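Preliminary data (for renewal application), zinc ion complex.
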Amino acid sequence: MKRVGFYYDDIFLKHHTPLWHPEAPSRLVNLINSLKASSIWNELIHLKPKIARFEDIALIHTEYYIDRIKNARVGHLDADTYFSEGSLEAALYAVGAVLSSIDKIKAGEVDRTFCAVRPPGHHAEAHKAMGFCIFNNIAIGARYAQLQGFKKVFIIDFDVHHGNGTQNAFYNDNTVFYFSTHQFPHYPGTGSEDDIGMDEGEGFTYNIPVVAGAGDITYSRIYNDILPPIIEDFKPDIILVSAGYDIHKHDPLSTIRVTNDGVRTIVKGILKSADVPYVFCLEGGYNIPALEDCIKITIEELLYS
Ligand SMILES: [Zn+2]
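Predicted structure:
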């Protein structure tokens, strides 16, 4: 059995969104209640995130943007991204969960972690909030990991939406590999298979756009056959995963139709690809019962796979 750190804090509930908004605190409230009632709760090492410093945030985001968020008023940052009174604190701790994961892995206290955080991060660009995301949790985590000695970082993003912010952060970089599967065409419209990186980063971005309805068979082929040799070639020191469960067949924001078994196949495929530390960080997933099932499945695999 692996030593799996689980990050959650009630601070994540302080990020409020309007009533109609799918990215709501109830996503985590229901998840935690359901996990507590299950046997895997006691198998986890329960950890509290640290707060990310603004100098950590600046590993990815511009000073101008950080100032804008520090001084933001309650309201919309973009059409979909809402900022409430507790949003800055929640966002700093969401990043902090990923940073703290890397600290604990480096200290040899855990092998793998799951960060049950909100707001999510992978759409956030260096200079702007986007698509429910304020700070790019995974991208900041990748740079922080490098500072801690994990020189080569592989990012896997299986959220149903393309992680435009993460891709852009490392587009010219051959030390951070970005691999994404996402519904296409779909929000945010980026992530064509022709996007393969630029300059030194050419060949270090790998997008697999997936058509609506593709389902488990397509995902099984990608995560069992295509992904493992790419990881083997790159030889990462650590793997960070943008875990978005809006791929699920019951999710209201997509039509990719992956089942619970499909999610298990994806996570197994990822974990068999390399014997390195893994940090999974929650991105999307908006059908609450499906989100609970998918995270339980992920944690089971993190523990026993
Ligand atoms: Zn998503």
